[in-house]
Design brief:
Blueprint lengths: L1 E6 L5 H18 L17 E6 L5 E9 L4 E8 L8 H12 L5 E6 L3 H6 L3 E2 L4 E3 L2 E8 L3
Parallel strand pairs: 4-5
Antiparallel strand pairs: 1-2, 2-3, 3-4, 5-8, 6-8, 7-8
Length: about 140
């Protein structure tokens, strides 16, 4: 497995297409959430795309790191269904956290995964909320 963390201009078009296809397959189809996944933030100058690639250059996982000013925001964390249950999500998230150096990191965890995010150093940072019919928990990794 290879992990790449790159800004949009350095994102290979094949990898970009695979990332957006995976996000659509999991978030829109599997989780039945109709929302604008392509929200304009992928191309922002401060955005980093974290790609987990197999040895044959197939996308196994993806995360997006956004520059939200005072902190970083990790989102769109997704693993291809064929690669789940192998511990790869830990590797993907550690790379995303590393790409978000120097400031606090926030994310909105799907609530059933809040315990897993806690193992990576995140703590609950607000009340649970529902978005797209899925319970989410705001979380923060404090770096002060």
């Amino acid at each position: 497995m290879l992990v790449l963390a790159v800004p949009f201009p350095d994102l290979d078009p094949r990898h970009a297409y695979a990332a957006w296809q995976l996000r659509q397959r999991v978030f829109v189809l599997e989780q039945a959430c109709l929302y604008p996944d392509l929200d304009g933030r992928d191309t922002e100058p401060g955005t980093t795309h974290v790609l987990l690639l197999t040895d044959d250059d197939t996308l196994a996982g993806y995360a997006r790191v956004l520059d939200d000013g005072s902190h970083w925001r990790i989102g769109r964390v997704v693993l291809d269904p064929a690669h789940r249950g192998q511990g790869l999500a830990d590797r993907l998230m550690r790379a995303a956290i590393e790409a978000a150096a120097g400031r606090d990191v926030v994310l909105d965890a799907q609530s059933p995964l809040a315990g897993w995010y806690a193992t990576l150093g995140f703590a609950v940072d607000g009340p649970e909320f529902v978005e797209d019919d899925i319970a989410h928990t705001p979380m923060r990794l404090t770096r002060r």
